[in-house]
Write a structure and sequence with these properties.
By secondary structure, the chain is of the alpha/beta class. It has helices at 19-22, 35-40, 58-72, 83-86, 96-111, 127-130, 140-155, 168-177, 190-212, 233-256, 262-267, 276-282, 330-343, 371-389, 432-442, and strands at 12-16, 76-80, 115-121, 161-166, 216-222, 226-228, 288-292, 297-301, 310-312, 348-353, 394-400, 419-422, 427-430. Bound molecules: the ligand N#[N+]C[C@@H]1[C@@H](O)[C@H](O)[C@@H](O)[C@@H]2O[C@H]12.
């Protein structure tokens, strides 16, 4: 007898987006610029010269998009607040029209039976704060706590799920080490200081929430399991370094109050000596953790790649996405079981999971066929069910993404959406994966 794949009662079925990737109108109604406004308008940094000036025009089409969510039967929607829409200078003056946009969106979601899951920081730091040092400035923790408190006071009566940061690793690695995303720095000495101030900011926001919040608050990490390419000690050591750099550099301080020992050796002279009191702030207990899972990495030793001295080994025999990621659903349960075994019974939401596949141009019809994304969705949801059966406390799943959108510096060409967006007309068309997800939601998983 095949076991029912029904998910637990109360499990949330969602989709996720981020402000700069979908909203457009980044400077409308008194909003201030973010570092992405600057980065995207710097020639040569964005694929095809794409920017978030229009994106999915969600700032103006949000009511239509909420109806699309309802059409799928979503019970939750994860989105981010554009900090500089609400606080144009990052601190101080509140822009009422910016705050009002998010209040109207939240009210519309609730009217459609969709639970808001709000991310406070999804990479779009106010440019005015970057001018003051950004995440390199220890004051950034206070700036973030001030902004978080503005949002809590405005929306906590209606928002039951808050997260402080989205994927701090990407901000550090992409924004300060490799320069592939805003603010585009390339400085080994900056990276650990940014990690530390991001985590301090998250802790400060959690502490602020404890003073007046009525619901639950967490933080979102991208976790990518690392597997050694061979049993050679060099490859196993490289795998441990890669795991510390991408995963436990963030989860250990928040959930254990310590940085992994491997980081000091990895960063060498660039590793600062952080005050112990900082870790007490960082380790503020969270109510849940969001995990973004996309793929795994097979790792080999590579002395030519400092500071990590590790490199990924392509798994060419398997299906890959348009972003070059291997489809590897086993990595999802491996990650969830590792997380539970290391950190205990912290509730988890799978806050992002999805894939960019080439959706071939099709005659304008009612549905865009995307068989590879349907397969990806089914594989990962079945695996998620296995993790829940194994005792991992997973409370919800958010497909990345509701809409095709601006994939940061990769531009609009990388399409992750359940809905296809024709960016020349803003026409939304459901993909087959959207219809399949709706079936799964309607059966609470049994249709898997
Ligand atoms: N790439 N990719 C897709 C997706 C990105 O669009 C999100 O903004 C991030 O939170 C995370 O990196 C994942």
């Amino acid at each position: 007898m095949t076991r029912s794949l029904r998910f637990p009662d109360g499990f949330l079925w969602g989709a996720a987006t981020a402000a700069y990737q979908i909203e457009g109108s980044p400077l409308a109604d008194g909003a201030g610029p973010s570092i992405w406004e600057r980065f995207a308008h710097t020639p040569g940094l964005m694929a095809d010269g794409d920017t978030g000036d229009i994106a999915c025009d969600h700032y103006r089409r949000h009511a239509e998009d909420v109806r699309l969510m309802q059409a799928l039967g979503l019970t939750s929607y994860r989105f981010s607040i554009a900090w500089s829409r609400v606080l144009p200078e990052g601190t101080g003056r509140v822009n009422a029209k910016g705050l009002d946009f998010y209040a109207r969106l939240v009210d519309d979601l609730l009217e459609h039976g969709i639970t808001p899951n709000v991310t406070l920081f999804h990479w779009d730091l106010p440019a005015a704060l970057d001018d003051r040092g950004g995440w390199l400035n220890r004051d950034s923790a206070d700036w973030f706590a001030e902004y978080a408190q503005v949002m809590f006071r405005a929306l906590d009566d209606r928002v039951p799920l808050w997260t402080t940061l989205n994927e701090p690793w990407v901000v550090v690695d992409g924004g300060y080490l490799r320069g592939t995303i805003a603010p585009g720095h390339r400085n080994l000495y900056e990276a650990p200081r940014v990690t530390h101030n991001l985590l301090r900011a998250s802790g400060a926001a959690v502490a602020a929430y404890r003073a007046e919040g009525r619901h639950r608050i967490g933080v979102v990490f991208n976790l990518e399991p690392k597997y050694p390419a061979s049993t050679r000690q060099e490859d196993r050591d490289a795998t441990r370094r890669a795991h510390a750099y991408m995963n436990t550099q963030f989860t250990d301080p928040v959930l254990r109050g310590v940085y992994p020992e491997a980081l000091a050796a990895l960063y060498g002279a660039a590793w600062p000596d952080f005050p112990a009191a900082d870790l007490e702030c960082i380790r503020q207990p969270v109510d849940f953790v969001g995990i973004n899972y996309y793929t795994r990495q097979v790792v080999r030793d590579d002395p030519t790649q400092p500071p990590l001295r590790a490199a990924g080994v392509p798994q060419r025999q398997r299906t890959h996405t348009e972003t070059g990621w291997e489809v590897y659903e086993q990595g999802l349960i491996d990650t969830l079981l590792w997380f539970r075994d290391r950190y205990g019974t912290v509730p988890v939401y799978l806050t992002e999971n999805g894939a960019a596949f080439y959706d071939p141009p099709q005659a304008a019809g009612p549905v865009v066929e995307d068989p590879l994304r349907v397969d990806y969705l089914e594989r990962h949801l079945k695996t998620l069910r296995r993790a829940i059966d194994a005792g991992v406390d997973v409370r919800g799943y958010y497909a990345w993404s509701l809409l095709d959108n601006l994939e940061w510096s990769l531009g609009f060409a990388k399409r992750f959406g359940l809905y296809h967006v024709d960016f020349s007309t803003q026409r939304r068309t459901p993909k087959r994966s959207a219809l399949r997800y709706a079936q799964i939601i309607a059966s609470h998983g049994a249709a898997l």
